[in-house]
Amino acid sequence: MDLGSALDRVGPHLRSLRQQRETTLADLSETTGISVSTLSRLESGTRRPTLELLLPLARAYGVTLDELVDAPTTGDPRIHMRPITHHGRTMIPLTRRAGGIQAYKLVIPPDQGAEPVMQTHEGYEWMYVLNGRLRVLLGEHDVVMLPGEAAEFDTRVPHWFGAAGKEPVEILSLFGKQGERAHLRTRSAD
């Protein structure tokens, strides 16, 4: 693949990343310090990407430069994702393909005594408790899950989850934005 065609693919990939994260050009401009017009020209391909522009974008998206420019893989099967910490919760992406179901490991700090705030959004979530105790509020239900237990729910139902008590909780989460659900395929024993 030549350099020109690789650079031509950067703009559409940047637009796709921004749309997946449901952020606006204005929000991204505020985060990166890059003007809205420059971001728009990068996404449309009318401005060539430079290292000075790509570094803040990679930082804002929590990806490596290779991932940002969609560089070809080198044959290394390991996933090198950077943890993202937001409101004390650490989220480690375990998948890197665009669209579809995304996998995460979450580490949620102990209960801080704050009142849970229920939320709703498009999607479907499946979670599995690895360590600790997870409190899940889902609609009218209030459940505490232990290691080895799993739950799944439509995220349009008001929900909240966090550590139950004074110890952190670790969970695996599969999330599909448009209501995609994880499907298990088995072969029949003929």
What's this, in brief?
The protein is α+β, with helices and mostly antiparallel strands and 190 residues long. The protein has helices at 3-20, 25-32, 36-44, 51-61, 65-68, and strands at 84-86, 89-93, 101-108, 124-131, 134-138, 141-145, 150-154, 159-163, 169-176. The protein starts with a helix and ends in a 14-residue tail after the last strand.
Walk me through this protein's architecture.
The protein is built from five helices and nine strands. The chain has 190 residues and is α+β, with helices and mostly antiparallel strands. It folds into two domains: 67 residues, lambda repressor-like DNA-binding domains (434 Repressor (Amino-terminal Domain), Orthogonal Bundle), CATH 1.10.260; 102 residues, Jelly Rolls (Sandwich). The chain has a six-stranded antiparallel sheet, with no helix packed on it. β1 and β2 form a beta hairpin. The longest helix has 18 residues. The mean pLDDT is 82.
Low-confidence region ranges: none
CATH class category label of the largest domain: Mainly Beta
Question: What Rg, in angstroms, do the CA atoms define?
Answer: 19 Å
CATH superfamily of the largest domain: Jelly Rolls
**Average pLDDT level:** 82
Domains, number: 2
Helix/strand layout:
Elements: H1 3-20, H2 25-32, H3 36-44, H4 51-61, H5 65-68, E1 84-86, E2 89-93, E3 101-108, E4 124-131, E5 134-138, E6 141-145, E7 150-154, E8 159-163, E9 169-176
Could you name the key traits of this structure?
elongated; 9 strands; Transcriptional regulator with XRE-family HTH domain; six-stranded antiparallel beta sheet; DNA binding; 190 residues; alpha+beta; Cupin_2; Jelly Rolls; 2 domains; TransReg_Diox_bact_type; 434 Repressor (Amino-terminal Domain)
